[in-house]
Amino acid sequence: MKDFQGRTAVVTGAASGFGRVTSLALARRGVRVVAADLDLDGAERTVRLAKELGAGGAAYRVDVADAAAMEEFAEAVREAHGVPDLVINNAGIAVMGPFLETTAADWDAIIGVNLVGVVNGSRIFGRQLAERNRALPKALRTGHIVNIASAASYQPVRSLPSYCTTKAAVRMLSECMRADLARDGIGVSCICPGFSGTNIAKNARTASGLPPERAARAHRWGETGLRLRNYPPEKVAARIIKAIERDEAVVSINLEGHLSHVVSRVSPSLGRLIARLPAPF
């Protein structure tokens, strides 16, 4: 996809972080942004910023883990804006804590958002795109789905077992989708950023089994790490745009993203040693 002008994009988790900056990067290219988030005020703020850039848009409150709610949302989008040309499955959460302290409720929460949410967005909007494209000549078929994974999809981390697991699943899901949806003219890209300056650590859950003092240290550790890394999320958004333009399959972003990918391919044993490094909480 080279020409973005006049297209429509659905972005989940659009109230902040990668979702907001990607929405604005698309708006600068003339894309109408449909911003979806549990935080409706934040999504509406994103749409206001997009409109200041000259793009249209609308905000919706939706829980990506709720399949029925996502079906209703997708139908509302189609009725109001048509079938979206771009779908950015960005909504995600983190759970910090060792495996044995990560409870069933923690697993249900993170799998619901990070994996099932991506499945719901891809399946429901992908079906709309496929139905639209099948009525068109092959040369006119278009559409792209972007799934946000993480460098954690390559690198195991003892203090982030649920996060790493869901992000690895998103990467494999994206590869399967790409193979299947190509026949309908739909591109699929999986984005794997390393550390970046978003609020994911600030908003992260800590494993329910962690004592309060360790949970507090986990939050401080996560927020400090992202602040010191200081990698602008706008650079991630720019790379997402490029991935759509080039129809790239899997995209690693920044130094740790590339290193994690290389280590996973060249020296998995080194990755396992890194995984055993103690967490400071």
TrEMBL record:
PROSITE patterns the UniProt entry points to: ADH_SHORT (PS00061)
TM regions (residue ranges): none
Signal peptide from the UniProt entry: none
UniProt entry keywords in alphabetical sequence: Oxidoreductase
InterPro entries with a match to the protein in the record: NAD(P)-bd_dom_sf, Sc_DH/Rdtase_CS, SDR_fam
Family: Belongs to the short-chain dehydrogenases/reductases (SDR) family.
PANTHER family: OXIDOREDUCTASE EPHD-RELATED, RETINOL DEHYDROGENASE-RELATED
Name of the protein in its database record: NADP-dependent 3-hydroxy acid dehydrogenase YdfG
Species this chain originates from: Actinocorallia libanotica
